[in-house]
Give the backbone structure.
Amino acid sequence: MISDPDVVGLLYLVTIACFIVALKFLSSPRHARKGNWVGGAGMLVAIATTLLLEGLENWALMVVGLAIGTVVGLVGARTVRMTAMPQMVAIFNGVGGGAAALVALAEWHNAVELGSDETVSIVLSALIGSISFAGSAVAFAKLQELVSGRPIVFPGQNVVNVLVLLGAAALGVAAIAGAEDQWLLYGLIGLALAFGVMFVLPIGGADMPVVISLLNAFTGLAASATGFVLDSTVLIVSGMLVGAAGTLLTLLMAKAMNRSIANVLFGAFGQVQTAAVGGARADDGRTVRATSPEDVAVQLSFARKVIVAPGYGMAVAQAQHDVRQLADLLEERGVDVKYAIHPVAGRMPGHMNVLLAEANVPYTQLFEMDEINPEFPQTDVVLVIGANDVTNPAARHDTASPIYGMPILDVDKAASIVVMKRSMNPGFAGIDNELYLDPKTTMLFGDAKDSVLKLIAAVKAT
Amino acid sequence: MDVPLVIELTILVLAAFLGFEVISKVPTMLHTPLMSGANFIHGIVIVGAILVLGGAEDTFTKAIGFAALVLATANVVGGWFVTDRMLGMFKRRPEPPKDSDS
């Protein structure tokens, strides 16, 4: 048992220092993994210190709760496939927000003569935590494709959202003003949950990483607010660190996609969707040309320079290992092979780097968008594997397109383009890709893994 | 620990600036792992959950505290292992990128 408050404070200070170092290390490629370990150590110190505080009860429940949470977290984190990582981050973020809201609820329930600063903290923690919980759940459902990744909109949505949020705020103000009805906070949490759902529903799947990052910052702020309720500096500081870092990260991510936060949150990809679909599918007689693995194999084998542009389709099909094999095969034949990584290829910035690293693709072959774009005009064949929106030339010139202004891979500037795709279904943003109508483009339909395996066989036979 | 509100607010503001400063130069490819790592860190709310459950006297508070503890623990454990798995993918890298020491 630790009874000296100074010792407790110092141990929590160790935790805070660990978290700061962890964030610092996590933003540098060389130290990132170490950073996570440092953060883990800090967390263990905080948990051990708290468990050793005097006067804690309910040990049976404590042990069972820790055990269940550990099993859920472990199983979830270990068994999920790399492609599903973004959803897992969303879920683990949501439960954190839920925990913060529940802590606030418990404090409200047991409150005797709360000071107004404590009530403010309880209200904020419950409000933000609940929004984060519900919003993350919807983000998870969208990424997992339990509900459509497309924006879900209905008339008057913004009005309803504002009313719900105002309702929650009104209950919060009533609580702060001194009303001590238990139901105030239940109502507030209910409305905040509803708002969380409705706030994420209209956001398109392609913008989900930015939203998850924002909700991540929210959860940090909720945790920080619980720190004020419980008079715990470790919570205040750690929560705020995440709140600030998460906000900055959200801005950086949005910038990588050339979208403003306001546009992501309220622009609803879907609002302009109808116009864009009409515009992109110009009925000027251009049609999509399908090709066969054999033809593509010949094209590839006799090319001097090939660039692979991988996207989420490759990730879903788990084709990254086969793609590497194909690239190795081509390199043996003297073909120069490079990979073009769009900052938001996959479902999150950096997602594609992770997947290709998993397949042991040499880091020296991976090129970020700005480095590779000038090379497309000298490229013989671009192999677009399950990427869609990040290759859509409409982003450069079609002001009516919802992705207008997003930086893209200039694959259309290469001598020829082969698009490997499951079907003609539009991509995550829900819009058509005019690249497919380009006379230089041929389509190789089928599951990415299947197609790549056929290509490997065909290249070997060439 | 009864810390005066003004001190707590001071700490809060300093932490906000520190949070901005500490990750200001992060390369794109680390955005996802960093988000996941930050996600793990806000699992610190587990401290709040332990305090609530440990001090709970009535059934309602016990139930709420228990639920909070389960959620927070999942956040901590899941968040850490997801981050570690992601970063593990980067480990056999022949050359670190240029700005790795920033």
